[in-house]
Amino acid sequence: MRSNSKCSSSSSSSSSSSCSKCSGHGGSVEVALVVVVVVVIVVVVVVVVVVVVVVVVVVIVVVVVIVVVGGGVIIIIIIIIIIIIITTTIIVIILYHLFQETC
User: Fold this and answer.
1) In the chain, where are the structural domains located?
2) pLDDT at residue 102, as a whole number
3) Which residues cross the membrane (predicted)?
4) pTM above 0.70, yes or no
């Protein structure tokens, strides 16, 4: 009886934080929703920052290549393709980890 006192229905109303470990109580659902929302917001911010950084790097690299090489279109296309592949891979990895955490 004493070992289950944390998760009994009588104490769940007075201290919902102590019942966050129990899957059957409403407190754990609220905690899970808050965690999911926070994780989604963090992932969106990280993805946006990564995309902005990659776009800035692409623009700088393209400008440098045009100035140095003098219009090497093939090199520019190859660099852009490589950066797109890297960015897509990073986003997929982040979303995969997010999916693993929420499930």
Assistant:
1) 16-102
2) 64
3) 33-66, 72-99
4) no
